[in-house]
Design goal:
Rossmann fold, enoyl-CoA hydratase activity, 2-enoyl-CoA Hydratase, Chain A, domain 1, NAD(P)-bd_dom_sf, alpha/beta, N-(1-d-carboxylethyl)-l-norvaline Dehydrogenase, domain 2, lyase, 8-stranded mixed sheet, EC 4.2.1.17
Length: 729
């Protein structure tokens, strides 16, 4: 029994005959259901349950922005056996059952994230009060970690929602805001914050939420709880769900959607559907056991381990490992109002940066500004921001065709075409206007930062910041440091990127950096395959079955065949035939000459129509027919998958070997978030660990014999295979 006087993660308060259990996890920004938390929570709850003086209980958080963010992932990662995982789930279910079955009313007063195990705690409580602010959200994101809710969450969501709504939440792992949760019946009362626009009011908001919860629990104690009355539509839904034909139809539709979206490569969604079917057919007792069995099965899969590894990597890349900049960054100037430049402005103005968006022409500037305005107007329509917030955010943007006010800038982010001379000239010109402390960052994906800074008066303040399109949706930011880049320049760029909401990898200046290099090597292998008689849809089918979210032939067209040709010509002198041979370069140049540039020109490997449909481009077929290599049979799906992925794996390992990237974690995050390497494989390095480096090297050797030296394994992989080493501990 925990000494209630020695609690470190929970504060126990009383008001009259009401107990307030205030969660405040030690040395953490958020509350989680860690071992230490549960070792206090369970004894506290048991004590309150037995205390006859206590008539009602409130569970609330002392941490602004976090009710309970979920279970502590490290807790079940440390468990070694399936049986222990099963028992862990059963123990969690029992705790939630005790909360639900308590004779004393228990209210969850929720402000901030209420996710995963935290949402399961709230669902087990008798009454839920939610703060109606931006930071309060509800969801069960376990599926994103290759798991399912393991403490009765599947059962209680089925009990509280229609089958379709429950499936939507559990299968997608999406987060819903308080207002939507109230509309769905998951929250009983919404509390409007005293002030939603001032950060230092959060503690007062928590006190206000607490006072309302106390008032409500006292009402329930006096009135005695009554069973929730269901409306007409809810009763109709309930009757429909008793019909096995309707249930099975909804489940079969959900399964078809899962298979279409995941190719069956993620075990968790299919297990979730199985648990729900068992529950609907046999009741909650069977359902709870099925949930625990499924949780234990999923937690030991390679897919879950890979997704959890990505979760840890993403968390690591959201931290500032480089220290605090010497100066606070207040004003950013973005040079170039194209899609990327406008996107950088978009993710900056709502973070309270003052932003100057510059372009040489009014028309380009108008286009970029319109892109930003349209995006934020959509946010209003989707209730993500208010009209007042919209006006405040847009007031941070100043669009101009002159270099006025650049003397106020703390950082310049240049986003113009990938032309070395152009970027050098812009830097040289801007150095006449910007203050001494100002940093110059080039949004480049191929050009050397050292060369861009070659004529600079202060090369130590020049750095690369490679944003990905669309900037407001792709989380990754690849920061490129040259040898002369100062530590303060690096930590300033990192600080800006983190404030913009990015996950960050820092790479060393080298040809192609990291993400572009991997992407180009995969694209080149696609052209080799096309020369052997494959069609673009063969490539797409194989790569989607491997786990890419979209087919790589489609991604190739999106990227642009002209851009690929430009980059390949730039890198050919450096990497030689390890990258590409002359026949593929000739083929690329023929595509460009015939205006088969990809989606931007309406045709590439595919022809794109205005209604969004596509079909294989007959002109592409004709061009490929003239360059076919007839020496080999047409590759099968597995061969296609390995040929493309081995090029990626080998180049990723070479980047680590050459110190382009500093760790396997950065390599995995860059590949998954930068160009969509299959998440369920965890990234190139996690995948090589799972498959075995010796097996990977054997495959590379076999493919080298059949297809040439471009598949020769890098020395790092050869050495690791000999010693049976892994990239991760």
């Amino acid at each position: 029994m925990t000494d209630l006087q020695q609690l470190k993660n929970i504060k126990l308060d009383y008001e009259d005959n009401i107990a307030i259990v205030q969660l405040n996890q030690e040395n953490s920004k958020v509350n989680t259901l860690s071992r230490k938390m549960m070792n206090e929570f369970v004894p506290v709850f048991n004590h309150l349950k037995k205390d006859d003086n206590i008539k009602g209980i409130i569970v609330i958080s002392a941490k602004p922005g976090s009710f309970i963010a979920g279970a502590d992932i490290n807790m079940f990662e440390s468990v070694k056996s399936r049986d222990e995982l099963y028992q862990m789930s059963r123990n969690g279910q029992e705790i939630m059952n005790q909360i639900e079955q308590s004779s004393k009313p228990i209210i969850a007063a929720i402000a901030g994230s209420c996710l995963g195990g935290g949402f399961e705690v709230a669902l087990a409580c008798h009454y839920r009060i939610g703060m109606n602010d931006k930071r309060t959200g509800f969801g069960v994101p376990e599926v994103k970690l290759g798991l399912l809710p393991g403490a009765g969450g599947t059962q209680r969501l089925l009990k509280n929602l229609s089958l379709s709504d429950a499936l939507d939440l559990i299968l997608t792992g999406k987060e819903i805001k308080a207002k939507k949760a109230k509309a769905m019946g998951l929250v009983d009362i919404l509390v409007e914050p005293i002030r939603s626009d001032v950060q230092d009011m959060e503690e007062q908001n928590i006190e206000y939420l607490r006072s309302i919860a106390i008032r409500k629990v006292k009402e329930i104690v006096v009135q005695k709880p009554t069973k929730r009355k269901f409306g007409l539509m809810e009763n109709i839904k309930s009757i429909i769900m008793l019909n096995s034909y309707v249930r099975n139809y909804i489940l079969s539709q959900a399964q078809a959607k899962v298979m279409s979206q995941t190719q069956g490569l993620y075990p968790a969604p299919l297990k979730i559907l199985d648990v729900i079917q068992q529950t609907l057919e046999n009741g909650s007792k069977v359902g709870l056991n099925a949930e625990a069995e499924a949780f234990a099965d999923l937690a030991i899969t390679n897919e879950s381990k890979a997704l959890i590894s990505l979760f840890h990597g993403r968390t690591e890349c959201k931290k500032n490992k480089y220290g605090k900049p010497e100066r606070e960054i207040k004003t950013i100037a973005i040079i170039g109002a194209d899609e990327i430049g406008a996107g950088i402005a978009h993710v900056s103005i709502d973070k309270d940066f003052q932003v100057i968006l510059y372009d040489t022409t009014s028309s380009a500037l108008y286009h970029g500004q319109s892109q930003i305005i349209k995006s934020y107007q959509n946010y209003i329509k989707r209730n993500r921001i208010t009209s007042t917030e919209y006006s405040r955010i847009l007031s941070n943007l100043n669009c101009q065709t002159t270099f006025d006010n650049l003397e106020k800038c703390d950082i310049i982010i240049e986003s113009v075409f990938e032309d070395l001379k152009l970027k050098q000239n812009i830097l040289n010109e801007l150095e006449q206007y910007i203050p001494e402390h100002c940093i110059f960052a080039s949004n480049t994906y191929i050009l050397s930062i050292h060369q861009i800074a070659a004529n600079s008066r202060r090369p130590h303040k020049v750095i690369g910041m490679h944003y990905f399109s669309p900037v407001d949706k792709v989380e990754l930011l690849e920061i490129i440091r040259a040898k002369q880049t100062s530590d303060n320049t690096i930590c300033t760029a990192v600080s800006v990127g983190l404030k913009q909401g990015k996950i960050i990898i820092v790479v060393n200046d080298s040809p192609g950096f990291y993400t572009t290099r991997l992407l180009i090597f995969s694209f080149i292998e696609i052209f080799y395959l096309l020369q052997e008689g494959l069609l673009p849809n063969d490539i797409d089918k194989a790569t989607k079955k491997f786990g890419f979210h979209i087919g790589l032939a489609i991604l190739l067209d999106d990227f642009g065949i002209d851009m690929i040709t430009y980059i390949v010509c730039h890198l050919k002198n450096i990497f030689g035939e390890r990258l590409v041979n002359s026949s593929v370069i000739e083929l690329l140049q023929i595509f460009v000459k015939n205006n088969l540039l990809g989606k931007k020109s309406g045709q590439g490997l595919y022809i794109y129509s205005n209604d969004g449909n596509k079909k294989i481009n007959p002109k592409c077929k004709e061009l490929l027919r003239n360059s076919l290599t007839q020496t080999k049979d047409i590759p099968k799906i597995e061969t296609i998958q390995w040929r493309i992925s081995l090029r990626i794996l080998n180049e990723a390992a070479r980047c680590l070997e050459e110190n382009v990237i500093s760790s396997p974690t950065d390599g995995d995050i860059g590949a998954v978030f930068g160009f969509g390497f299959p998440p369920m494989k965890g990234g190139p390095f996690r995948f090589m660990d799972t498959y075995g480096t010796s097996n990977i090297v054997d495959l590379m050797n076999n493919y080298q014999l059949e297809y040439g030296d471009r598949f020769a394994p890098t020395q790092l992989l050869i050495d690791m295979a000999k010693e049976n080493k892994k990239f991760y501990p």
